[in-house]
Amino acid sequence: MGITVALLSYLEAENIKTSFPVIRNAAESLGEPVEYIVVDTEKPLDETPNICKAYGIRYINQIYPHYGGALRTAFQYASMDKLFILDADGSPDPVFLRPMYDALMSGADLVIGSRHIQNGANADTKANELMSNICNACYRLGLGMRVRDCSTSYRLYRTADVRKLLLSSENFDIMEEILLKLKLTKGKDFTVKEVPVRAIVRQSGESKRSLLKFIYSLGRTLIKMVILRILAHNGYEPEKHERQSEILTKVVIACGVIVLLLILGAVITAIVGG
Fold it and tell me: Exposed, middle or buried, 131 (CB in 10 Å: 0-12/13-18/19+)?
């Protein structure tokens, strides 16, 4: 019994240095044993290993690629039964660890630190906030869930639940994949609670998110999750449905590309012919 606090890091040494003492104070006020881990890049790129050593944080190099791989690494190495995930950029405000913990202890299977419910706030640009709202609206419809903030990584999990999941997403779309697969695995009794949080503007460094890759991966995963939801309608078989949904996703995308090329060809023909 206890809590793992996992920070996902990519060139975030300075942010860990300034934010960790506050995170530690908030986590240790919860009254349970706490372990701290930092999941860093496959090979160190900055002073993160030294900072972890100074603070007594367990330092782990991710064993799977990209953001999704860092998250799966945290799932694998967490040793406590409850797992907080925080990006190491300093944006998750540790003051919300307590209400998120209380929500889990009240019976939730998953607690989300939500920027998109009443009293929640995002520290992002207006353009990124608009994109986040559109993304969340699409995923609410696609996943058939009422969660307002599907895309945030600021979450509190029950470690045993996420360890069972067969996850394949490599980028930020893994957050939505986790939501649906927890729902399919836990069944109709799956309970998600959202706690309003206010994100903090990062103190140093820049976002590592690639916009085009972000949009493509979210779109592809949305298609795949809708297909998976349909396949699992009469019962979820993870390995079988993962294979089928991957194949069908490729077919849908290929058909979409063909249709777009045909439309483009027709438009060019009309312009040249005109």
Answer: middle
